Amino acid sequence: MVKVTNPILRGFNPDPSICRVGNDYYIATSTFEWFPGVRIYHSTDLVNWELVACPLNRVSQLDMSGNPDSCGVWAPNLTYSDGLFYLVYSNVRRFDGRWKDLTNYLVTAPKIDGEWSEPTVLNHSGFDASLFHDDDGRKWLLNMLVDDRQGKFFGGIIIQEYDLLKKHVIGDRQLIFKGTQIGITEGPNMYKYQGKYYLMTAEGGTERNHAVSLCRADNLLGPYEVHPHNPILTAADVSAHPLQRAGHASIICATDGQWYMAHLCGRPIGPKSRCLLGRETAIQKVEWREDGWLYLLGNGHLPALSLDIPAESTPFDYETADFIDDFSSQELAMSYQSLRVPISRDWCRIDRQKKVLQLRGRESLSSTFQQSLVAQRVTHFTYEATTILGFLPTHFQQMAGMVLYYNTRHYIYVYVRFDETRSCRVLNVLICDNNRYTDLLETPIPLKNEVDVHLRFRVHDGQLQVAYAQEKNHWLPLPDEIDCSICSDEYVCQKEDYKAAFTGSFIGLCCQDSHLQKGWASFHHFEIKNFYHK
Questions:
Q1: Can you give 369-428 as a three-state secondary structure string?
Q2: CB-count exposure of residue 251 (10 Å: 0-12, 13-18, 19+)
Q3: What are φ and ψ of residue 492, in 5° steps?
Q4: Which domains does the chain have, with CATH numbers?
C-alpha cells in the first residue's frame, strides 16, 4: 500500500473527469481562458500523475480571443469507447448578464497524446456537457440547461441522443433531473451499474457549499430518485476541514475492482481563508453497498485528506518539486500556457544557443486579445520565483518583467520600462486590484543601462515580497510586502460586479509594447523553487 495525500493535482486543476482504459488512468481538467485548452494527466497506479496531453492546441478547435475572464473551456468530459477517446468541452464566450453564450463541442483521438480531431458542434443550451456510452451502443449527450426565465438560471439536467455517424444530436431533448434542494445543479456524469442508471451531479456552486449529488433510475430517461444520504461528498458543513469546495466529481472502477472518485477541492489558508492556488483535484475511495447506492469508503461525506492505494511506486514528492527552465530545449515545456491564443513564433521563441526565451511586446496585461505572456501554475503556498531579464526599452510604452497573475483585473507585476525624464531604465511594481492600478514605489528605481536585471518573488502564505539585482546574488528587496491573496477566487468573487472567478494563480513572463509592438525582451532563466522558508 502507498499513502496518497490529497490533492493529487495541485494548483489550478478543476473539474476533473477521470477515465480508465485498460491499465491506464487519465484525468482531464478545465483550463478556462488559458491556452492550450484542457490538460490531461496519466497514471498507471492512481498514485503518480504526469501531464501527457493538451488536446485543444489550435484555434480551429478553440477560439477564445476576446473571451472574458474565467470563460473559455469549462468542465471537459473524457471518455473512451469504440477504440476512441472522446472529449466534450464547452467554450463559454459570455457569462455576465441574463444570457450565457457558449458552444459545446466534441473532439476524438485514437491516442491520448496524438492529434485530436476537428471539433463537432453539439449544442449551445448549457455548459458542463458530457457523453454517455450505453451498453446497447447508443450515445447520449447530457448538460445543465441554462434557463433565463425569472432569474432561474440553473434549469436542471437535460439529455439528448447523439448520432455518431451524423455527428449531431437527434430526437428531442428531455429534462431528466431538476436537482435537489441544494440547488445550482450542473456537472452531470451518467453511469450504469448492475442494470441501473446513476446520474452524478455537482450542486451548491463551486465555492464553500459545493457538493456531489447522486440519483438513480431503472430507465435512462427516468424518473430518478435521489440518494437517501445525499450529498455523498461535501465539506459545506465543516468549515474547518482542510479540503473545502468539495464537489464536481467523476468515478472509475480500478483494475482491482476498487472504485475511486476524482473531485474538485480547494485549500483555504491564512486569516482570510482564501484558496490561493485555485481549485485543485483530489481522489477518494468509494464503494457500492447492498442497497445499490454509492458511498464514500468509511462513513460520512467529508473528503479524506489521504488514502491508501495498492501500488508499489513511490509517491511524487511535491514538497521538493521545483520548476527550472534554462531555455536550452527547442520547444517550451508542455506545462506552459498562454492567455486565450496559441503560443506562436511571431511573438514567442527560444534561442537555444543563447539559452533565452524571447517575447515580443504586444497588448497590455488587461487585454483579452493578444497578450505576450507565458506562465506556469502556482502549485505551492510558499515559494520563490526568479528570472533574469534582458530588456532595453526605448520609450515608456515598452514594458517587460515577471507577473503573479490571476486575471486581467487582478495581478502583481514587477516590470522594467524606460523613464524619459531620467533617460534610463527604471523598475517598479504594479498592483492591479479590480482594475485599480497602484505603483508600489512612488519613485521608480533607476537601473544600470544594458545590464540584465534579476527579478524575484518570495511568497509565504499570501504575502509577496519583490526583490531585484543587477549583480548576481546581490538581492535588493523592496520594502513592502504585498497581499497576494487578491489573486484568489474568494477575493475576486467578493466584488459586486464579478459573477465568475474560477481560475488560479500563475507566475508569468511577459512583455508589452503599446507603440509599434516590435520591442523584444529576453529571459535567460526561469525558476520556481517551492517551499521556500524565511
A1: CCEEEEEEECCCCEEEEEEEEECCCCCCCEEEEEEEEEECCEEEEEEEEEECCCCEEEEE
A2: buried
A3: -65, -40
A4: 2-315 (2.115.10.20), 320-530 (2.60.120.200)
Task: Please state, as a whole number, how many other Cβ atoms lie within 10 Å of the Cβ of residue 265.
Answer: 27
Is there a contact between 249 and 263 (Cβ–Cβ < 8 Å)?
yes
DSSP lists the bridge partners of residue 464 as 459, 482
CB 56 within 8 A of CB 44: no
State how far the Cα of 261 lies from the Cα of 195, in Å rounded to an integer: 20
Burial class (CB in 10 A: 0-12, 13-18, 19+), 440: middle
Does this model's pTM top 0.90? My answer is: yes
Residue type, 438: T
Residue type (1 letter), 260: Y
Look up cell 491564443; give the residue: 341
Say how far apart CA 414 and CA 405 lie, in whole Å: 11
Is 172 exposed, middle or buried, given 0-12, 13-18 or 19+ CB atoms closer than 10 A? exposed
Q: Give the CB-side neighbour count of residue 107, counting CA atoms within 13 A.
A: 23
Length of the chain counted residue by residue: 534
Q: What pLDDT digit, counting tens, does each position of 66-111 carry?
A: 999 999 999 999 999 999 999 999 999 998 878 889 999 999 999 9
What is the Cβ-side half-sphere exposure of residue 465, based on CA atoms within 13 angstroms? 17
Active site residues: 15, 186
- Asked if 360 contacts 520 with a C-beta cutoff of 8 angstroms, the reply is yes
Q: Please write the tens of the pLDDT for every residue from 232-246.
A: 999 999 999 999 999
Contacts of 195 (CB under 8 A, 6+ apart): 218
From 10, 5, 6, 8, select the one nearest 528 (Cα to Cα): 10
